[in-house]
């Protein structure tokens, strides 16, 4: 019998999640738009990345400008961890 290895899902550290979200800042402006967050949540395995992006902005966007800034990123990371997002190893 041949066994194939299935990628393990591990809970990411806050630093790993932070780096993943920063990677999706496509235009490099230091803020995450809904479209950029949608791509990030898709990468994290969300079945509804658009909805999750909207909820992430709702939870993290303290100043109400419609984006998640560097200063607000910790709230987004907390939101993602709370909802059990993991990365493949």
Automatic annotation (TrEMBL):
Give GO terms: molecular function aspect only: calcium ion binding
Q: Which superkingdom, per the lineage?
A: Eukaryota
Q: Carries keyword Calcium?
A: yes
The record's keywords, sorted A to Z, are: Calcium
InterPro entries given in the database record: EF-hand-dom_pair (IPR011992), EF_Hand_1_Ca_BS (IPR018247), EF_hand_dom (IPR002048)
Asked if the Swiss-Prot or TrEMBL record annotates the protein with the keyword ATP-binding, the reply is no
Organism whose genome encodes this protein: Carpinus fangiana
Where the record annotates domain EF-hand, the positions are 12-47, 57-83
Its protein name is: EF-hand domain-containing protein
